[in-house]
UniProtKB/TrEMBL annotation:
Residues annotated to bind ATP: A33, G34, A35, G36, T37, G38, K39, T40
Reactions it catalyzes: Couples ATP hydrolysis with the unwinding of duplex DNA by translocating in the 3'-5' direction; ATP + H2O = ADP + phosphate + H(+)
UniProt-recorded name of the protein: DNA 3'-5' helicase
UniProt keyword annotations, A-Z: ATP-binding, Helicase, Hydrolase, Isomerase, Nucleotide-binding
Length: 721
């Protein structure tokens, strides 16, 4: 009875979909869990419910995920639920534990080879062996390409064909990468070391080629749970298949709309194909979002609803469960410095109003974007931390560039225009102002140095004012020496250590995290989606990145972009992923980033949400109504008829079609919302100051109960030119 009570207690507080996932019968179970829907609660409750009911033994369960933090969270929750003894580990940790345990048997008594913590050193040696000189960034890109190949079960001899099929943006000519791959494998063997992919392969080999090892592992682990299943790669799936050995007690959980790591070899194909691979699978969809407000959830749904491709087949329409919150804001700025300054000012005001700094995040597409926000936050007195990357001025390439710039002050003539001087100096560290190189790390290095060139252009736009008398002054162009001193000042300011602060992170680094307030910045074409997204599949992954960013916000969400990167720069368009929004909202003034003068107005775009369910409204008629077409109407039919009659008389008097006065959608909105004041009337989309002046008094009278004859007979409606 006590056991039954404990297992039933696990079900307390679960929503119907979570309960279905927890109580699903033994066998293949696929839980499609949207952001914030309680997936960790569902899978840990499923394990605990089965264990406490006596269906399974905790020590026979292996739960795998992708980060040590997620594994620790699973173990903690299972302990609280009373299911001690479950092995919750990352794929690599589980494989390492098994290979170490069975090494004496698998290796004929020899010790397990040393495990490389990084491929970069050996890859650098391998590149040199095949005549390829590399810096650290290039070596990191080659290491990443080798890691992709090994995770995708691609051998060196097959790399060229596989890379072509996968449309890989290779850091060097594919045949040369294959040569480096081959040399790297030879160096590993001669040094007696293995890498993480070798360890996973060793675990597979141990199970598949050694029946006694396979039997012992199958006896130990009989029930499997895989978190973030959309992120598995072919090698990890091969290991999972080896663990299962044809058995089917497998629970997977994932969200195809959060597939954002395909460049590493991760694929959502196994999640998408799960029902086909496992014919009798139970599929449960978790769609109740407990993390974000309905307003944030509505925008996330609007963005992902436009998705196309394989992953879109499993997209989920989330339903916000929290109380309504503020509408997301879309802000448009003249340039990126103005955008960064506005973000910093808003962070400052949020903190002053009581929001903890650690509950605020600024998210961007690439790490090179962080510099502007580091500077703006520093000058606003806002502490910050950089997630998943170094601070801008701590990056190796930036430190090297600053040394090169200081050295160039002695060789480049002082009258050389600053941007030209900076470009010339940066050639000493291998930067060139042409197209960025292929490869993620090399491209990131190029973008960081490009950011220094952009800083020089902005700094050059603010010449120093030098007094030449009591009432006169002259502008002096800034020099390279001035610029290096400015960079040193910024670096010194931003090197102040902080323990608790606003999080600066790339969208990739933000996966799995959440904050009360989130700023999504730089949402312009060329940045999100990046210009490097060439194929349809790559563009769709960029869309999913924005979706992941939106769903990080619990309550307060800001989306922004700048119409130019730097003051006076080339115009840019907003990201194609942003909903087509009404741009008729009010304006606010933004403080400029390059001096005390006021900058041009920035536009503030209001995102309209359904007043009933909170979903973001995109279609014009829906925005006028203020609700989704599927949400129930509370229209006052009698008022609607009086409004229609009044419109007909006014249109006849003005000799214009009826819709010129008010559209049908506007009349329905008036009859549903029944505004009592001018402020409420003008809040209805389609009613601006002009129509308020022409018709406002009559409409408010009709809403208050006046008859059509009361407002029409003696009234003349004239449209001023």
């Amino acid at each position: 009875m006590a056991v039954h009570s404990a297992s039933e207690q696990v079900l307390a507080g679960l929503d119907p979909e979570q309960r279905s996932a927890v109580t699903a019968p033994a066998g293949p179970v696929c839980i499609l869990a949207g952001a914030g829907t309680g997936k960790t609660r569902a899978i840990t409750s499923r394990i605990a419910h089965r264990a406490l009911s006596g269906e399974i033994s905790p020590r026979h369960v292996l739960a795998v995920t992708f980060t040590a933090r997620a594994a620790a969270e699973m173990r903690h929750r299972l302990t609280l639920l009373g299911a001690q003894g479950v092995q919750a580990r990352t794929f690599h940790a589980a494989a390492l534990r098994q290979v170490r345990y069975f090494a004496p048997r698998l290796l004929a008594g020899r010790a397990m080879p040393e495990l490389l913590d990084s491929k970069v050193r050996l890859v650098t040696l391998a590149a040199a062996r095949v005549g390829l000189r590399t810096d650290r960034a290039a070596a990191r890109d080659l290491a990443g390409e080798i890691e992709w190949a090994k995770s995708s079960l691609v051998e060196p001899t097959d790399y060229v064909v596989a890379a072509a099929r996968a449309l890989r943006d290779t850091p060097h000519e594919p045949a040369k990468v294959a040569d480096v791959f081959t040399a790297y494998e030879q160096l590993k063997r001669s040094n007696g070391v293995i890498d993480f992919e070798d360890m996973l392969r060793a675990a597979v080999w141990g199970i598949e080629e050694h029946p006694d090892v396979g039997e012992q592992i199958r006896t130990q682990y009989r029930h499997f749970v895989v978190d973030e299943y959309q992120d598995v790669n072919p090698l990890q799936q091969r290991l999972l298949d080896a663990w299962l050995a044809g058995r089917n007690d497998l629970t997977v959980v994932g969200d195809a709309s959060q597939t954002i790591y395909s460049f590493t070899g991760a694929t959502s194909a196994y999640l998408v194909d799960f029902p086909r691979r496992h014919r009798n699978a139970t599929v449960v969809r978790l769609v109740r979002d407990y993390r974000s407000t309905p307003q944030v959830v509505g925008l996330a749904n609007a963005v992902i609803s436009q998705a196309r491709g394989t992953e879109a087949r499993l997209r989920l329409e989330l339903s916000g469960q929290r109380p309504p919150g503020p509408e997301p804001d879309l802000r448009i700025f003249t340039d990126e410095p103005a955008e960064a300054n506005a973000v910093a000012a808003r962070c400052r005001s949020l903190i002053d109003a009581g929001t903890p700094a650690k509950e605020i995040a600024v998210l961007f597409r690439v790490n090179a974007q962080s510099e502007a926000y580091e500077k703006a936050l520093t000058e606003a007195g806002v502490p910050y931390v950089v997630q998943g990357a170094e601070r801008f001025f701590e990056r190796t390439e930036v430190r090297q560039a600053m040394v090169a710039l200081r050295a160039a002050t002695r060789s480049i003539p002082g009258e050389t225009p600053l941007p030209v001087a900076v470009v010339e100096a940066l050639t000493a560290v291998g930067w060139a102002p042409d197209a960025p190189p292929a490869g993620g790390a090399a491209r990131e290095r190029w973008e960081a140095l490009s950011a220094l060139v952009q800083l020089a252009e902005e700094y050059a736009a603010t010449p120093e004012v030098v007094p030449i008398g009591e009432a006169a002054s002259v502008e002096r162009p800034v020099t390279l020496t001035d610029f290096t001193e400015e960079l040193a000042r910024r670096a010194a300011q931003q090197h102040v250590p902080t323990v608790d602060g606003v999080t600066l992170a790339s969208l990739h680094s933000a996966k799995g995290l959440e904050w009360d307030a989130v700023f999504l910045v730089g949402l312009a074409e060329g940045t999100l989606p990046t210009t490097y997204a060439k194929t349809v599949e790559q563009v769709e992954e960029e869309r999913r990145l924005l979706y992941v960013g939106i769903t990080r916000a619990r309550e307060w969400l800001w989306l922004s972009y700048a119409t130019a990167r730097s003051p006076g720069g080339r115009a840019r368009r907003p990201s194609r992923f942003l909903p087509q929004l009404d741009r008729s909202g009010g304006t606010e003034r933004a403080t400029g980033s390059t001096g005390p003068a006021r900058r041009p107005e920035r536009r503030r775009t209001q995102i309209v949400s359904c007043r009933i369910c909170g979903a973001t409204l995109l279609a014009g008629p829906d925005r006028k109504l203020g609700r989704c077409p599927t949400c129930p109407s509370d229209i006052d039919d009698e008022l609607h008829e009086r409004l229609r009659e009044w419109r007909q008389r006014v249109a006849g008097a003005q000799k214009v079609p009826a819709y010129v006065v008010f559209t049908d959608a506007t009349l329905i909105a008036l009859a549903e919302r029944r505004p009592g004041r001018s402020e409420e009337l003008i809040a209805i989309a389609g009613i601006g100051p002009r129509k308020l002046g022409l018709y406002g008094e009559s409409v408010l009278a009709l809403v208050a109960g006046a008859g059509v004859d009361d407002v029409c007979p003696e009234k003349t409606f004239e449209i001023s030119s």
